[in-house]
Amino acid sequence: MAWREKLARWQRQLLAERARLTGRWSPTTGPHFILELTSTCNQDCHYCYNVWKQKPALAETVLDAAGWCALIAKLQAETGCTRLTFSGGEPLTHPGFGEILAFCHARGLESILITNGGLLDADAVAFCLAHGVRMFELTLLAAEPATHDALTRAPGSWERALSAMLCLQQAEAAWCGVFVATRRNVQQVRETLELLIALDASALMFNRCNPGGAAQLALMPTVAQVREALAVVNELAARYGVFATASIPIMPCLIETGPYRHVHFGFCSAGRENAYPTLGPDGRVRPCNHSATVLGWFIAAGSFVMGRRMVQGLVLRAEGSSEPSSIEAVEIAHCGWRRCSPDWGRGCSSSGVSPGSPCSWAW
Questions:
Q1: Cβ contact 304:74 at 8 Å
Q2: Cis omega (within 30 of 0) on the bond before 89?
Q3: What angle do CA 105, 89, 300 make, to 5 degrees?
Q4: Number of structural domains, the chain?
Q5: Global pTM exceeds 0.70
Q6: What is the spatial distance between Cα 203 and Cα 210, in angstroms, rounded to a whole number?
Q7: Does residue 231 belong to any structural domain of this protein?
């Protein structure tokens, strides 16, 4: 058994090195889906973008373990997916999480786990690693507990997150430390990222607050604050040789991303090869985890299968038909500026859209 553990450790180290060199955590081998296992969470973050915070009907029903396993089997059979991301809410609060993860592992599926770390102890880490979790994503909002706990509205959450990160460090697991930048904590970006690096984070993710769900525009950092923070992320990524990404779109009409050569920038991927359609707690499909637009029911056996890619977004088609179903494809709004077009990269039009502006940055 010792040689298997050593091999798994080498595989995780190779994964981190590949990400650093190529800017990708996983090769593009088939579709990738996010499964929001539950709407339940042990935190109540001010910046949370979960769509059911504004539209509770999207989470009135939560699939049990058997329901999720049936959906995953159908998803794999019809789309050929090889990896999934588990999210929520807090996915570890789902009573059937272990059963769902073991089911995925038995079917050869790898997974990514997005968690706040509150329930991630050494035993949970060991179980996840033994059942196909190749990457963990944990958020740290500050270098000290007061600011972090104020943003999560969960006393003790900073200490629990650090405890989980220490467990990952001791297990030599691959994990990504996430910093969500708001006006309340952006000043601590350097100290927080340095703490994540000291804890052996395999990667860093800088996400500016994306209004939507519970998050409001008042939490948005200013353009100047984001520029300064990105300079810090770029500096630390170069100094320590760690992979760094900004996955929430940084609008190129406001901030030129060229100077930050060591930061990988993400844009809206709806309708593209690297899209990540999201299945909510009840099994309904949405274009991504920021969008409240429901494309259809995937769980209903025989009613829909995943359709061909369209530029406007994910569509479903009726089984046995080559035509898109009557469900509308998602329109990706943008201002028409060349750098924000589908050919260059575009911002998030699914959340934080202010009146009269297609951008989610309205300062």
A1: no
A2: yes
A3: 65
A4: 1
A5: yes
A6: 21
A7: yes
The residues that bridge with 285 in the sheet, in sequence order, are 279, 296
Domain that includes residue 132, residue range: 2-304
Kindly list the distances between the CA atom of residue 317 and the CA atoms of 31, 275, 279, 298, 302, in Å, as whole numbers in the listed order.
17, 17, 16, 11, 11
Tokens of 254: 């406001």
Task: Report residue 322's pLDDT band, with 50, 70 and 90 as the boundaries.
Answer: very low
User: With 60 as the cut, is the pLDDT of residue 156 above it?
Assistant: yes
Residue 342: how many CB atoms within 10 A of its CB? 15
Here the tokens at position 9 are 């450790």
The pLDDT assigned to 329 comes to 37
User: What CATH number is associated with residue 86?
Assistant: 3.20.20.70
What is the DSSP code (8-state) at residue 90?
A: -
**Torsional sign, CA 95, 98, 101, 104:** negative
39's enclosing H/E stretch is none
β-pair partners for 35: 86, 279
Kindly state the average pLDDT of the residues 171-193: 97
3-state secondary structure 175-222: EEEEEEECCCCHHHHHHHHHHHHHCCCCEEEEEECCCECCECHHHCCC
Q: Which residues contact 150 (CB under 8 A, 6 or more apart)?
A: 184
Asked whether residue 332 is assigned to any structural domain, the reply reads no
> Which residues contact residue 291 at a Cβ distance below 8 angstroms, ignoring those fewer than 6 apart?
51, 270, 278, 330, 350, 351
Q: Which amino acid is at 345?
A: G
Within a domain: residue 253? yes
